[in-house]
Amino acid sequence: MTGARDQGRRAERQGGCPIPARRVTLARFQRDEPARGTELCGTYRIAVNAWLAMAGLMRVQLSVADVCGIHRRPAPVALVPFEPASPLFRALRMVGNRNESVAIFVLRTLACVGRGADRTASGAAARSFVGSHAGHTACSWAGVGLARSLCFAGAPFALFDVALWTTGA
């Protein structure tokens, strides 16, 4: 007993753990079948990547809106006036437009997954949705009005395409 106590004290002085290490084998935890969510994410990889791209786009838009707000320094609770030429107004408007449609996008793609829709077609529709929003963002920042409106109009068509694949038509 004295030897084990001395080894524990010696390990504590050296910065180690006084509990002796045991070998743990993971053989009983390893399985031949993949985890539940892994297979689903692999099957609908295009749609999952579209979700990640949309999350990245939203993060960039929020960062731009924050930088514009810091640069302009409005009053803390004041509403932003309607000035389409203002970068802060455009940035906040883009964030608002995205927030309105992203929930519908996620629900539609989840419905595609739940109904077992064709993964390639539903992924392509999800990519076109994200692409139309990315085009809308780029055109808005560049100040190109007509192209911005055309890109914004592409998003509902992409959602309609996702809805078609959900119903299996």
What does this structure look like?
- This protein is mainly alpha-helical and 169 residues long.
- Helix content is 73%, strand content 0%.
- The chain is built from six helices and no strands.
- The protein has helices spanning 2-13, 36-43, 45-72, 87-115, 119-142, 145-167.
- Helix 3 runs parallel beside helix 5, helix 4 packs antiparallel against helix 5 (119-142) and helix 4 packs parallel to helix 6.
- The relative contact order is 0.11.
What summary fits the major beta sheet? none
Q: Radius of gyration over alpha carbons?
A: 26 Å
Oligomeric description of these chains: single chain
Shape verdict: globular
Alpha-carbon distance between the two ends: 76 Å
Q: What letter string, H or E per element, gives the SSE order?
A: HHHHHH
Helix content: over 70%
Question: What percentage of amino acids are in beta strands?
Answer: under 5%
The tally of helices reads: 6
Low-pLDDT regions: none
* Helix vs. strand class: mainly alpha
- Tally of DSSP β-strands: 0
